[in-house]
Write the structure tokens for this entry.
Amino acid sequence: MSNAPRIAPVRLGPVLIDFPIALAAMSGYSDWPTRVVARRMGAGYTIGEALLDRFVVDVSKGRKARRYLRVTDDDHPAGAQLMGSTGEQLGPAARRLVEAGFDVIALDPLGQPLAKSGLRADLVREDLNFGCPVKKVVGKCRGGYLLGQPREAVEIVSRVRDAVPPHVPVTVKLRRGMDDSSESRDAFDAILEGVFARGAAAVTVHGRTVRQRYDGRSSWDFLREVKQRLGRRIVFGSGDLFTAQDCLAMLDQTGVDGLTIARGAIGNPWIFGELRALLSGTSVPTPPSVAQQREALVAHYRLAESLYGPKRAGFVMCKYGIKYARVHPRPIEVRDAFAAARNAEHWWAVLDRWYGASGPYP
């Protein structure tokens, strides 16, 4: 493994990411418990689930604020991803996230000056998502829609850059275009150059078009072209990263500065430690034993319970159990068992049956 590609720390403004392999933003999945688990397993950076600008502005306290706007000292550096279609909405939403803790109020030892709450400020970014392929998002002139509107997209970045404190990095997520037309590529190129000119600290590029959604292969050749064009400017790669070997291959083939891992990390947080091992020139650790899987599931559950409360945690963790089941020696049966669970009691019964000492895999 001596010829493994090298990966260096990256700096987004004052934010140092010593291991630029991130948990990507995924709606419904990249919540605070999942981010904390990923960090504990080796992720160098995490990005919260994508939030609409209006939602962020309207939610200021209560259960929803605690769920979506939570950042703690074991969740850093952490990013907050925003979606929206106008600078008028996105600017106030970005400031709200700063106030909520994603950039100035945090419990991290590398904190910056004291905020008015008395808590130390932290290393955080705002991440604008111009590439979401979900139909209802594109239809509302958010996300992927902006890939066809270079002037509007660049103006949004400029407004958000102006709206947040100078020390807060602003980054942008892009798909490679709306489709494979030359017009779409021209628009992408214009956005790419424009966002850096307006102060973006980095871009994350997914190698599929919006029209592809999640079908077909992600174009790593496109990622390589983007990185070669941008030179020293920071590029994170995304798309088709399901194993540590996939991640190693993308780094090797594209030369990107870092990665954001999405679906490949949900239910498989071990991917971060495995990649760390590969990049250090050692062998990939053996797959987690069932006992280790149980330990991770229990830790994830306890974090979810602290966020959602004891009644809701069981329901929330059923969908995560389905994802974790992929690593189990009997994935289909375990998946179906978690899918049938409806509450905390059911969830723990599945855990004891398939992951406990009384089950077939001690």
